[in-house]
Amino acid sequence: MLPPLLIFGPFDPSGATSLPADAITCAALQCHGLGVLTANTVQDSAHQEDIVAISHEFIDEQARCLLEDMAISAIKVGRLDTPEAVSVIAQIAADYNHLPLVLHLDSAGDAGDLDAQDLAEDVMAATIELLLPQTDIVVTEHMRVTQWLADGLLSEPVETNDALREAGAEWSLVLGTPLRSDTRCTQLNGPEGLLRQWNWHAGQERLSDSADLVATAIAAFLARGLAPDEAVAQAISYVQACLQQNFRPGMGRRLAWRLPGEQHE
Fold this sequence. Notes:
Blueprint: E1 4-11, H1 18-28, E2 32-43, E3 48-53, H2 56-69, E4 74-77, H3 83-95, E5 101-104, H4 114-131, E6 137-141, H5 142-151, H6 163-166, E7 171-180, E8 183-190, E9 193-201, H7 210-223, H8 228-244
Parallel strand pairs: 1-2, 1-4, 4-5, 5-6, 6-7
Antiparallel strand pairs: 2-3, 7-8, 8-9
Helix pairs in contact: 1-7, 2-3, 3-4, 7-8
């Protein structure tokens, strides 16, 4: 039986991230992907033009409908766009706290004006307060952690260099920490501190957001019963293969090929 993986996230019509891209990742990693829509976007492979958030009542209704129907094995939460969506998903996570939860921590929408910036800060504050403490593994990028620390949304860590774990997450995976001008690393921190580090060359051309892909892959391996550290290691290996076989379907960014065992033209 394919373990069901419940995914909260926006619909990306370009197929670069989140729904429906997560469905391909789930199939590649032998899981049954279930999607709860949190927003609709207008975007292509180059940029996002608009976003329409889904009501928190709809999110709650759809998620609980699936949770009452199937034996969900894990939950992945992608980018969220309203504090109300964060609140309702946090309540669902509390009601089903026996399920492993992977959080892709990302900025909400495009903060192009003051109102959008205020909303993005409200969403992030709610996520850090309500959802992060219930998270088994949080996945994000180093540049975002640096910005949230500067904005005061995260507290400067006291005992370790891991602000996300001190904010409540059990494990954290931070991508893109700079080592040298041409080298970045991905760091996994757990209950005993820094557990593992993967170094990689910083390419000239940025691909579509790999943090979202990593988070989905980790959730899929957790759904299949792997321990957190092994799920992360397997996910990193899978994502590296996906990124190596990237492709460019439009005029924007290159995308990861989520079926690395199959050739594409």
